[in-house]
Design goal:
The protein is an all-alpha fold and about 140 residues long. The chain has helices at about 20-55, 60-95, 110-115, 125-140. The chain contains 4 helices and no strands.
Length: about 140
Amino acid sequence: MSKQIILDAEYKPADDEPFMNERQREYFRGKLIAWKDEILKEAKETLVTLQKESENHPDIADRASSETDRAIELRARDRQRKLIAKIDAAIARIDDGSYGYCEETGEPISLKRLEARPIATLSLEAQERHERNERVFRDD
């Protein structure tokens, strides 16, 4: 059983401490769990709204508008479902010690990038290279 790390509310990972030390891992774990909880809360609210909206609209324009809104909402929920899978994968990487390191190069991902995108798996340089290659192949 590992010891519990308690972070104060003002703690932010800094470049002058060892990379992915226990405090940083706990900070990012908390950030990821809070993000996931927020997505799940929004999903529950959407479900309630969609259930209320399922009434029949006598006007065809109202019905069409309602169907369009529903389709957009369901697409957004699908994206969020995929995001939850990425959050869970990031938490698993924290547990196995690989979190914060680029999958391609093995180099540390900058704390700034992880702060902005806690599910990042590539360093900024590797991500840019990946996107450049994607554009080249997409243009064929």
